Amino acid sequence: MTRSELLEEVVACHRLGCGLEVCVYPKPGFAKKYALLATRYGSNDTRFRVNGEEAMTPAGIAHFLEHKLFEAEDGSIDDVFARQGAYSNAFTNYTTTAYLFSCTDGFETSLKTLVDFVFSPRFTYEGVEREKGIIEQEIRMNQDQPGWQVVSELIRSLFHFHPAREDVAGTVESVRSIDVETLRKCYNTFYHPSNMTLFAIGDISMQQVVDLVEQEMERFRHGHAPVVERVRPDEPVTVARRQHSRKMMVSRPLVCMGYKDPDVGYDGERLARKVVTAEVLLSMLVGRSSQLFSQLYAEGIIDNSFSWDYSFDRDYAFVMFDGRTPDPQAFVDGLTWGFERFRTKGPDAEALERTRRFLMGTWLKEFNSLEAIAYQYLDYHFLGMNLFRRLEMAAAVTREEVMAMAENLLIEENKSVSMVLPA
Amino acid sequence: MPSGFRTMHLSDGIDLHILVDRKFKTVGATAVVHAHISSETVTKNALLPRVLRRGTERIPETMDLERRLEELYGATLDVGVSKKGTRHLLAFHVEVAEARYVGAGSQLFRAAVELLRDVMLRPARGADGALRHDYVAQEKENLRRLIESLIDDKQAWAMRRCMEVMFPGDDAALFKYGRVEDIEGISPAELSSWHQELFGAAPIDIFVVGNCDEESVVNDVGEVFSLNRAVAKLPPAAGAAGTSQARDGEKVNTVVETMDVSQGHLVMGYRTGLRLGDADWPAMVVTDGVFGRYSHSKLFQVVREREALAYSVWSALDPTRGLMLVSAGVDFGAREKCVELVEGQLRAVKAGQVSAEELDNTLRGMARDFALMSDHPGSLVDFALEAKVNEVDLGVEDLKNAVAKVTLDGIVHAASRARLDTVYFLTHKEGPASEG
Fold first, then answer.
1. What's the first-to-final CA gap in chain A, in angstroms?
2. A100-132 confidence digits (pLDDT tens)
């Protein structure tokens, strides 16, 4: 049981006999109920050893598996949930595949449906072939999006070998090479209950959910958990290429500038602290209230499309700054100059305290939304981090930590720039 | 589940509505300024909140205003305009942490409300006493870009055009963001005097929702917003649209326009004459649900799923003007067939051809939608505002209970009120080899 006295929030996790972890987060008074069944398996997990045997699988297979599982005998699982008055969805990212539904009534029925379809795979040759066409469309659609392209190419610039280089959906070619046998192998490797977590949130009780899921899981026979080892290539700390640009049908250039974080290789509390420090640093540097943002905005170099994001996992991390600009070079130079100035001058005490407060309030607001909690909680939980401690950590981040991160992260060697320019 | 807002008069033309719900970690205050929409004022109304958001008398620089919000533990300050019938609504919203969760002093909400008041009533001014020229110029440009970018949303464009066609020359058909051609001519001096005039006499509603103490909210808001004003009463929000009867027996008005679009956008405007507060309104809400609101509704099931004629198709009600609107994205050549299918489905509802399953699914969907509103302060505020604008004393619970009791007879009765008035179709320019 994890409790936050400060936030007055509590979540309890329990491991069933079959190995499935069940986490229940009571939110009294909320009308919505929400459940998510997730496996620690994402697009980065293409290469692995299972019970000593090494496997290389096609890029995009985790996402493909998600599509296939989401199919009922007579159409889509969506319709089954809709008949129960629930809304359903699924997603795959670099590290996780998750299936979810939300409802107000009939939570127990929909929870059973969720467990049943995720643990009852039906792969047929015809179904798999049909899906290839659908996913191919999805991939081609993404490739037409300039905003998607500019980020994809940045990630390919930052990393030499890391699987994050590959898009979550894979490529047209990799998807074509997927077959029933490989899907089964991946399913059996990564969809064992011991690799999965069921997270439920709303006006519900721990016991109610645990009893129901336990009973439902008895219908399935799962053997011993396979011994799985994810194989990752050795990724150098350097960036793969400094710059990439391409031409597309856009009215104004898009720029995405990134810095590869050399400080990686851990999870848990230490990673949580790094992430909070990064948020403090970046909010101070380029947040709406920063000198740098105001200046570049006033000069017309950035506009409201400007945003930044710090992405992280155990074995890689990077920050990116992206937006539309009339002058890509001024965008890159302006930000780079601002970062240099910050590294030499550092933040004043007033800015640090203000930013801590800003982040505390911003993160507090997320506890108003069941979806926001569910997504954040799982991300944090899978990395051994405690979501509740985020506010306290923000309050405790020191000037020294912020400066050390700026010194280590925002330097020329780590930098790469991706641009989409008008054709 | 909260039963509804508690309302009190603060002063002439200012009402405070409070809904305490401790399940939230924050508390939000939304001040809404009511204006009667007209072609002379619509663009100025749209521009005002954006200019006011830039700075106050005490904190004139935008960057410093952002810093003040950060100091207030990441308070957010959002402004916007919306429209209900002929009522143009200027909204100012501040959302702030409940102090104890962030270890702040107890004055956090008070400070946020003071900032809200300053933004609305004590703006940053230039040496000439008018609103800051630089802010006015920049926000004029931003508004122009916003209006021009909205043409990219073709479905919304078609909806607006249908309203203009349906209510020619009526102010109720004006676009909430105003008209591009007005922007150039708005001077800081003119905008300032309109600000004085509007905010000096407009009815203002202040909604407070979230984790708060009712007594201290009444105190804080009462003190901060103690204004001495003489408030004018506004004309009914339904405008000419609400009073004019369905054009029974008249021919349906069909308008086809062209633009560079990748699919056809069809909008069908029905007059129902039923408005929020009418005895038959709950039945009309369920009728719309059976007809086109949900994915299990007739329109989606027949027009999209069975006939594969539309990519999207749905219906919605305008509770202020007494309209039902159908929107569909269809192939360029499919307009007539689609209109016929939609009309056929409405005839079926009018004839009582609604299965027990359809009615049951709809009533369950509506119960869910009403229940979910209690998780979203914004939709509770919008509902209360809808009632206020329509001068109806109706809470979410009241409508929820009334809707749950609607029968098939009620649906047939309500559906019989719907008369097709206008068919608007936005299509591509036909010509040789115009594809690609």
1. 56
2. 999 999 999 999 999 999 999 989 999 899 899
Q: Last residue of a domain, which of B224, B256, B289?
A: B224
The secondary structure element, H or E, covering residue A185 is helix A180-190
> Are A297 and A414 within 8 A, CB to CB?
no
**Residues of B with Cβ-Cβ distance to A306 under 8 angstroms:** none
B309 and B421 part of one domain: yes
Same domain, B142 and B248: no
Measure in Å the smallest separation between the Cα of B99 and chain A Cα atoms: 9
Check whether residue B32 and residue B171 sit in a common domain: yes
In this structure, is residue B420 part of a structural domain? yes
Interchain contact B372–A (C-beta under 8 A):
yes
Residues B178 and B281 in one domain: no
8 A C-beta contact, residue A269 and residue A385: yes
Work out whether strand B204-210 and strand B26-36 pair parallel, antiparallel, or are unpaired.
antiparallel
The DSSP result for A30-88, as a single string, is -S-EEEEEEES--TT--EEEETTEEEE--TTHHHHHHHHHTEETTEEHHHHHHHTT-EE
CATH number at residue B325: 3.30.830.10
Per-residue pLDDT 10s for chain B (436 aa) are 345 899 999 988 999 999 999 999 999 999 999 999 999 999 999 999 999 999 999 999 999 999 999 999 999 999 999 999 999 999 999 999 999 999 898 899 999 999 999 999 999 999 999 999 999 999 999 999 899 887 778 889 999 999 999 988 888 889 999 999 999 999 999 999 999 999 999 999 999 999 999 999 999 999 999 988 888 889 889 876 554 444 555 789 999 999 888 889 999 999 999 999 999 999 999 999 999 999 889 999 999 888 888 888 999 999 999 999 999 999 899 999 999 999 999 999 999 999 999 999 999 999 999 999 999 999 999 999 999 999 999 999 999 999 999 999 999 999 999 999 999 999 998 754 433 3
DSSP A139: H
Domain count, chain B: 2
Looking at the domain assignment, is residue B162 inside a domain? yes
CB nearest to A368's CB, from B25, B62, B374: B25
- Asked if residue B285 and residue B199 are part of one domain, the reply reads no
- Looking at the fold, whether B145 and B26 belong to one and the same domain comes out as yes
| Domain ranges, residue B307 | 241-427
Q: Which of B176, B198, B224 is the last residue of a domain?
A: B224
ipTM of the complex: 0.90
Residues 73-102 of A with CB under 8 A from B: 82, 85
Do B288 and B319 belong to one domain? Answer: yes
Residue B400 identity: K
Examine residue B433 and state whether it is found in any structural domain, yes or no: no
Closest residue in A to B134 (Cα) is: A298
In a domain, B335, yes or no: yes
Question: B371-397, pLDDT tens digit by residue?
Answer: 999 999 999 999 999 999 999 999 999
B189 and B263 assigned to the same domain = no
Distance CA A71, CA A185 (A): 19
Backbone angles phi, psi at A59, to 5 degrees: -60, 140
